[in-house]
Design brief:
Helix content: 25-40%
Low-confidence stretches: 1-31, 35-48
CATH topology of the largest domain: Rossmann fold
Number of helices: 19
Strand content: 15-25%
Mean pLDDT: 92
Distance between the termini: 28 Å
Radius of gyration: 28 Å
CATH architecture of the largest domain: 3-Layer(aba) Sandwich
Number of domains: 2
Strand order of the largest sheet: 1-11-12-13-15-14-16-17-18-19
CATH superfamily of the largest domain: Alpha/Beta hydrolase fold, catalytic domain
Largest sheet: 10 strands, mixed
Structural class: alpha/beta
CATH class of the largest domain: Alpha Beta
Length: 707
């Protein structure tokens, strides 16, 4: 990155060092980063400990990043609102639909070519007025889908067909409410296909030695999402493709009229109904239940949910829940809602009004409706009855008000397609992790050719684009808000800040009695800037060796770490997914913080700008590699106790805390070792690398520089 020539505003509120302090000559060469002593938490004020906090108590530091990201989303929601409100003609509405459709298909995909389904019916249950077939098919080669097909045994076909994606119930297609909607539809002359999602029912993708699921549901969806994002897809890609192929199976049945297809699902099934109705134009009538709200209300209430409910760059592209409806205009869509749902009802009405207005401009306002019932989240009887009525109206030409009688449900085991209850245990086959790894390995050859066939500058431009590291157009300020003195050095508490961005709390350690400019270390510790800052710690050893050290908290770490509970094995998943929605992955944002800190450090009179090296520890490791690759002013970089390859992440199903390290689509162009090679011939040292599980990986490595 081009060096900024303007001088940074440096304001120090404390007194300068005494000029009579004893001199200390700078070392002949940079000292190695000392091994840290016993881990130290961020010191609190009092009890004899130094207060190393920089931000004021009333700043609510733990929520700063979250509020910043919400504000960034809100700005895009407002821009989208103004764009949609300006639509006043059918031509304008259609033009926007076509643009959004292209963006949506790019974001939700890429989808593979269709391959043989290889369907099998492995059993059946005869019931009163319908038959339940136990069905197995392959949405991708070797990737099995378990499903139940409800077929009317009364009346004359072909019948309309309805796909029912499941919500996040552990028993998936066997869940009571999902059996009920399937039976209700079948009793009224619909062929119904209800299938297990990955991670639920018979399709848990990761089993232990006894064949039991290690994780399931939302946790598995988020873990599968990590590797999928790295190879340019997402959990939503896999889930949506399963739905598309399920429609392929449904319309292949001779009992089904392929021109009369509906889709309805609840909660996570409402998510998939929304995605599918926006993606697959074979769906004529749709009724998503207890999901559709608006992204703005979602983010400001319960926040982003599990992996498949977050589509890469969706907010940046201006795609909201109302677009799921608009993209299928003028096909009929009913929003099933509950007054007391945790998916905010206000957002549901906002989305309904927008979609209703757009359909009205197109001349089909009656084809969008909303059903609200004073209940909590769920596919409850009133919602099921409303879904049935909607399907009868638009797929059978009957507009009545059917009611749901008492239904006889099947036991979970009786609905199983496999004998043991888990398809991976019984049939093996290909899991989502296998598919992610297969894709990653295929991309490795493309990456090698990309770096071989292009200039380094062009390759690094792609790194910058994918990680969304923006050029620094405005200089940061660095305000000193306090000074501490220790034996042989001082600590300045700095607040580094760029206009419109969260502050970067920093500690500048300066050796006493220095003569002339000293070499410096920019210290990016993923455990927080104070972790190694205690007396006798690793930072003190560097300072007493004659180097200045600037230890920083990149956003979301240390002082600004979110105080949210851990979920999906990731305590940073809300902010990570907000960044992904904005097409600004958290890793790229943190890289910008490092580069802002570099500007602050090079502006110091005490520092030799030609001798600044970078240290990245734990979560700071991948961030440091990006910063050093993108800015040649770093004389070298040391990475400690961090992952050193995203290929390892893709290959590790039970990875921990890796979501914030993800750059969507990165493995299409680069892996972390490519950054190491790009930094050379500047020295790069990899010390004590860790696996994506957090466990030690292998021996240290040193690349470039002196041996």
């Amino acid at each position: 990155m081009r060096t900024l020539t303007a001088v940074l505003a440096l304001v120090c509120l404390a007194a300068a060092l005494p000029s009579e302090a004893p001199a200390a000559a700078p070392p002949a060469k940079p000292a190695a980063v000392p091994a840290a002593k016993a881990p130290a938490a961020e010191p609190a004020a009092g009890a004899g400990a130094d207060d190393l906090r920089v931000l004021a108590p009333d700043e609510n530091a733990a929520d700063l990043l979250h509020q910043y990201l919400l504000a960034e989303c809100d700005a895009r929601f407002e821009a989208r609102r103004q764009e949609v409100e300006a639509l006043a003609t059918p031509e304008a509405v259609r033009a926007r639909i076509e643009r959004v459709r292209k963006d949506w298909m790019d974001a939700i995909g890429p989808f593979p070519d269709r391959t043989p389904l290889n369907p099998k019916v492995l059993g059946a249950i005869e019931a009163d007025g319908y038959r339940i077939e136990k069905v197995l098919y392959e949405s991708r080669p070797g990737h099995h889908v378990t499903a139940n097909l409800y077929v009317p045994t009364e009346g004359k076909g072909p019948f309309p067909g309805v796909l029912v994606p499941c919500g996040h119930s552990k028993n998936a297609k066997a869940y009571g409410a999902y059996q009920s909607i399937s039976i209700l539809l079948a009793m009224h002359g619909f062929v119904v296909l209800i299938y297990d999602p990955i991670g639920q029912g018979e399709r848990c993708q990761l089993l232990d030695a006894k064949g039991e699921p290690k994780v399931w549901g939302t946790t598995e969806h988020t873990l599968t999402d990590i590797g999928a994002r790295l190879v340019g897809a997402s959990a939503a890609t896999y889930r949506t493709w399963d739905g598309i192929r399920s429609i392929d199976y449904l319309v292949s049945r001779p009992e089904v009229d392929p021109e009369r297809i509906g889709c309805t699902g609840n909660s996570g099934g409402g998510t998939m109904t929304s995605y599918l109705m926006a993606t697959d134009d074979r769906i004529v009538a749709a009724a998503p239940s207890c999901y559709v709200t608006s992204l703005g209300r979602l983010f400001h209430t319960i926040g982003p949910q599990d992996g498949e409910q977050n589509v890469t760059a969706q907010v940046a592209l201006g795609i909201d829940h109302a677009d799921y409806i608009a993209l299928r205009a003028p096909k009929p869509t009913l929003l099933l809602t509950a007054t007391h749902d945790f998916f905010d009802i206000t957002g549901s009405w906002d989305t309904f009004r927008e979609a209703k207005r757009l359909y009205g401009i197109l001349g089909f306002g009656e084809r969008v409706d909303l059903f609200e019932y004073p209940d909590k989240h769920g596919f409850n009887r009133p919602q099921r009855q409303a879904a049935l009525r909607w399907m009868r109206r638009w797929l059978q030409g009957i507009d009545d008000a059917p009611t749901e009688p008492e239904l006889t449900l099947q036991k979970d085991a009786d609905l199983q397609v496999t004998a043991c209850g888990q398809v991976v245990k019984e049939l093996g086959g290909v899991t989502v992790w296998d598919l992610n790894l297969e894709r990653a390995r295929a991309l490795a050859k493309d990456r090698e050719a990309f770096w071989k066939d292009n200039e380094a500058s062009a390759c690094l431009a792609e790194v910058r684009r994918l990680a969304a590291v923006r050029p620094m157009t405005e200089k940061p300020s660095a305000e000193c808000v306090g000074t501490l003195r220790r034996d042989g050095y001082t600590i300045e508490k700095l607040r580094i800040e760029r206009p419109g961005e969260p502050p970067v709390p920093a500690l500048l350690f300066l050796p006493a009695g220095r003569t002339g400019k000293v070499p410096a270390v920019l210290y990016v510790d993923g455990r927080g800037k104070a972790h190694d800052a205690a007396p006798g710690g690793a930072i003190e050893a560097l300072v007493k060796g004659g180097e200045a050290v600037l230890a920083i908290d990149v956003r979301g770490i240390g002082e600004t770490a979110a105080a949210k509970p851990k979920k999906y094995w990731h305590n940073e998943y809300p902010i990570a997914y907000l960044g992904i929605h904005l097409a600004r992955p958290l890793l790229g944002q943190r890289t910008e913080d490092v580069l802002a800190a570099l500007e602050a450090l090079t502006a110091r009179d005490e520092v030799d700008a030609a001798r600044i090296r970078l240290v990245g520890i734990a979560r700071g490791g991948p961030v440091a590699l990006h910063a050093a690759a993108l800015d040649s002013r770093f004389a070298g970089v040391t990475i400690e106790e961090a992952i050193d390859s995203w290929m390892d992440v893709v290959a590790t199903p039970m990875c921990k805390a890796q979501l914030p390290q993800v750059v969507p689509g990165a493995l299409e162009r680069y892996d972390l070792p490519d950054l190491v090679r790009a930094i050379a011939p500047r020295p790069v040292e990899i010390r004590r690398p860790v696996a994506p599980t957090g466990e030690p990986k292998n021996a240290n490595a040193k690349i470039g520089g002196a041996p």
